[in-house]
Design goal:
The structure is a single chain. The protein is about 40% helix and about 15% strand. By secondary structure, it is α/β, with parallel strands linked by helices. Strands 1, 2, 3, 4, 5, 6, 7, 8, 9 and 12 form a 10-stranded parallel beta sheet that branches.
Length: about 325
């Protein structure tokens, strides 16, 4: 075993009982060493950490609703909502509270405990934030955890959302810093970090992950995980997305990622961020039940539940329930 890996596994070994959310710093070398472990050893390490912090038979169900679709001025090469790409997605206005309430109630009735609202903005205006705050209050009144993903936030906007009852704010890093410019040029990596800092300072929990399968190397996947794990504290929720290739986007013809590499990413995220909810997000539809089961074994304990993720497909709700039943697993109770 390499000295880098020995140091990583010794320093970050699971401890009995609760541990601090932040155990960093994680070097990219140490994270890459985890990726390079033989698959059985990596799964063992991930399962050991997972069991130290969570019931491995429980999975959180979250639902994501696009409350304002399309027309985004950003150039994220994976995104069908970018106005500059011809993907067939038409821009829409922000949904009304009554519409969102119906969708949230339906999600709650189907077993979701967290409801996330996404809007295709680069950076919302204060008047937009006020409208979203009303949506947050609407969902919160139903007894659901609330989450929003609205783009970059300016000073004071996270506080407004927190005052409305927002529990989580999602703002993904997407990739490692050294790969970011290959995918996005309309904002800088630091812009994302600045928004996360504003969310933290407002007392809102952080939901932050990334996308794999965009042509990055394994070391760059390690770089993404290291960035996430070294946030102070690390995110409470970590969505790991497998690229969904959409016709009309620059990444539509990107080669598929080896599914075992995706499972490795889940396992490494679990080891480096032991108290986070690691979520299977976009791309579940093409994984199949076997790969999803391996992801649960690797430490994933949250899924987006419902037939759609913003504008792309998702496994249907009954299929998710059946899969958990076949695995002897259950939905996690509300926090």
């Amino acid at each position: 075993m390499s000295s880098v890996l020995e140091q990583a596994l010794t320093f970050h070994a699971p401890r009995p009982g609760p541990t601090p959310a932040a155990q960093g710093p994680w070097s990219v070398d140490a994270v890459e060493a985890l990726f390079n472990l033989p698959f059985p050893e990596l799964m063992h390490q991930a399962q050991t950490v997972h069991r130290a912090h969570f019931d491995p038979t429980r999975v959180e169900f979250a639902t994501l609703l696009s409350v304002k679709t399309g027309g985004c001025p950003e150039d994220c090469n994976y995104c069908p909502q970018a106005a500059r790409f011809d993907t067939g997605v038409e821009a829409s206005k922000l949904m009304e509270p009554a519409e969102v309430r119906i969708a949230a109630q339906r999600a709650k009735d189907a077993g979701a405990t967290r409801f996330c609202m996404g809007a295709a903005w680069r950076s919302p205006k204060d008047r937009d934030i006020e409208k979203v705050a009303e949506l947050v209050r609407t969902v919160k009144a139903l007894g659901l955890e609330t989450c929003a993903t609205l783009g970059m936030l300016e000073d004071g906007q996270a506080q407004t959302l927190q005052g409305a009852g927002l529990d989580y704010y999602n703002h993904n890093l997407d990739s490692a810093p050294d790969f970011y410019g290959n995918v996005i040029t309309t904002r800088q990596y630091q812009d994302r970090l600045d928004t996360l800092a504003r969310v933290r300072s407002a007392g809102v929990k952080v939901c932050c992950g990334g996308i794999v399968g965009m042509g990055e190397t394994r070391r760059q996947r390690a770089g993404l995980v290291a960035e996430l794990a070294n946030l102070t504290p690390h995110p409470e929720s970590v969505p790991i997305n497998n690229l969904v290739k959409v016709e009309g986007t620059p990444l539509a013809d990107q080669a598929d990622l080896d599914p075992f590499e995706f499972v490795r990413t889940i396992a490494v995220a679990r080891i480096t961020m032991p108290t986070a909810r690691v979520r299977l997000s976009a791309g579940r539809q093409q994984m199949g039940d076997g790969v999803q089961a391996l992801c649960f074994l690797a430490g994933a304990n949250s899924i987006f539940y419902g037939d759609k993720l913003l504008t792309t497909g998702n496994p249907d709700t009954e299929a998710d329930v059946r899969l958990l039943e076949r695995l002897g697993m259950r939905r996690a109770a509300p926090a």
